[in-house]
Amino acid sequence: MARSVLVTGGNRGIGLAIARELQAAGDAVAVTYRSGEPPEGFFAVKCDVTSWEDVDTAFGKIEAEQGPVEVVVANAGVTQDQLLALMSEEKFTSVLDTNLTGSFRVAKRAVKGMMKMRRGRMVFISSVVGLSGSGGQANYAASKAGMVGMARSLARELGSRNITANVVAPGFVNTDMTAVLDDKLQDTIKQNIPLKRQAEPEEIAKVVRFLASDDASYITGAVIPVDGGLGMGH
Ligand code: NDP
């Protein structure tokens, strides 16, 4: 039987690529979307990860449709860049609320079913900047570093139940999130990447597929960089 998978923010960008990759591997894939139209070909539930009620309701619908979630990919995320001196507290906490607390809500809701099944895979989409830091991104980098600490805690807490928790740390990926950066900045970033180019979302998705597969049965608490070498040494 196909595994029940959930990808948050699976309506576009990296999340959509992950959803497609896992579906192609034979899983029953549900996605959440917050705005716009749901993507075609997936069981899609509207959900804002800053709301526990939304997350709980989304899981209920997904469980009814395709069974308890065995693989969860916490991918939904936002940036709100600003230099520290100019960054409002609201700008800091709202990024934390989506990226870090949102992932917590999703993992917390997923773990119930996983504990009953005595198996499960959690994959958290962090970022290279969670480890290396990034000027103007104190909120975003803090949220992404927090995901590492959280995932590693879950790896320890849930390992005896055969539930793994791993982190993927992408570098500079070709999505709407990076398209807003001006061309000059994009060129500068690319110059610092040993592979001298952006990743395509599919290159992140393939690593997530691996971490969710039987081939990764002995990997937990890992942080896998998929960044063309950008974060080497961190
Ligand atoms: P996009 O901006 O293209 O997509 C972001 C996704 O997250 C959308 O589906 C969006 O939904 C969803 N989302 C945002 N806020 C919420 C919320 N409160 N509740 C539910 N869903 C929400 O980003 P990417 O595809 O580039 O990024 C995906 C993940 O990868 C993010 O966590 C990001 O931080 C991370 N990442 C991206 C990198 C890059 O270079 N692009 C590099 C490293 C990490 P909606 O369509 O409704 O807005």
Automatic annotation (TrEMBL):
<protein>
    <submittedName>
        <fullName>3-oxoacyl-[acyl-carrier-protein] reductase</fullName>
    </submittedName>
</protein>
<dbReference type="InterPro" id="IPR020904">
    <property type="entry name" value="Sc_DH/Rdtase_CS"/>
</dbReference>
<dbReference type="Pfam" id="PF13561">
    <property type="entry name" value="adh_short_C2"/>
</dbReference>
<dbReference type="InterPro" id="IPR057326">
    <property type="entry name" value="KR_dom"/>
</dbReference>
<dbReference type="InterPro" id="IPR002347">
    <property type="entry name" value="SDR_fam"/>
</dbReference>
<comment type="similarity">
    <text>Belongs to the short-chain dehydrogenases/reductases (SDR) family.</text>
</comment>
<keyword id="KW-0560">Oxidoreductase</keyword>
<feature type="domain" description="Ketoreductase">
    <location>
        <begin position="3"/>
        <end position="176"/>
    </location>
</feature>
<dbReference type="InterPro" id="IPR036291">
    <property type="entry name" value="NAD(P)-bd_dom_sf"/>
</dbReference>
